[in-house]
Amino acid sequence: TQLLEQSPQFLSIQEGENLTVYCNSSSVFSSLQWYRQEPGEGPVLLVTVVTGGEVKKLKRLTFQFGDARKDSSLHITAAQPGDTGLYLCAGAIGSSNTGKLIFGQGTTLQVKP
Amino acid sequence: ETGVTQSPTHLIKTRGQQVTLRCSSQSGHNTVSWYQQALGQGPQFIFQYYREEENGRGNFPPRFSGLQFPNYSSELNVNALELDDSALYLCASSLVLRKDTQYFGPGTRLTVL
């Protein structure tokens, strides 16, 4: 059974702080996606990482794919209230073209002004 | 460019009834995946459709079925509804060459009483 474990499950921080969310598995993924979801809405794709060791930056967000393609991290610098939401990691099993994504349970982030 | 749309937004049914949810894929996308997201959980893969055929299925019983139409839009049908079917149902579209990079619609909130 492929599982993606996210940690922490909940995070409440002050505006301006930095944070890191982790996504771990014992399985190897062909690619990994990070999404952000607002209450009552669908997940919004933030990034796809494909190569082991890959690092991608999206403004204040930095995403890293582990060398063995079993884990990933999301680092937010100087968090803002607009970053509040549910962050989900999702891994594609098999080839990148199977389309079956395994999701973690999510990390709920609250950034207080 | 039109994003993924879903209808209806909300739906209330009673146990034993049947329901049909609809999804229009993002412009240019020919692959559609359906997910179930229970409250406080990450989405779970139901199935995927490509070229009007089911192309991969998760651990869901046969009373969950789907269709894809020539214009790539899709339907999710659930028969003999159970209380545990209450969830947010998400549709995601992707290109056939990158099925792992999926773009989600806003979802349909189904409540089964």
Description:
The complex is a heterodimer of chains A (113) and B (113). Chain A has 113 residues and is mainly β. Chain A is 0% helix and 52% strand. Chain A has strands at residues 5-7, 10-14, 19-24, 31-37, 44-49, 55-58, 61-65, 71-76, 85-92, 101-103, 107-112. In chain A, strand 6 and strand 7 (61-65) form a beta hairpin. Chain B has no helices and eleven strands. Chain B has strands at 5-7, 10-13, 19-24, 31-37, 44-50, 53-57, 64-68, 74-78, 87-95, 98-104, 108-112. By secondary structure, chain B is an all-beta fold. Chain B is globular and about 40 Å long. The model of chain B has no long low-confidence stretch (mean pLDDT 93). In chain B, 0% of the residues lie in helices and 56% in strands. In chain B, strand 9 (87-95) and strand 10 (98-104) form a beta hairpin.
Model regions low in confidence, pLDDT < 50 over at least 5 residues of chain B:
none
Largest sheet of chain B: 7 strands, mixed
Helix-strand makeup class of chain A: mainly beta
* Overall mean confidence score, pLDDT of chain B: 93
Overall 3D shape of chain A = globular
Strand residues, percent of chain A: over 45%
Cα distance spanning the termini of chain B:
38 Å
Q: From N to C, what is the helix and strand string of chain A?
A: EEEEEEEEEEE
How does the helix and strand content of chain B classify structurally?
mainly beta
How many distinct helices of chain B?
0
Helix content of chain A: under 10%
Distance between the termini of chain A: 40 Å
- Strand proportion of chain B, as a percent range, falls in over 45%
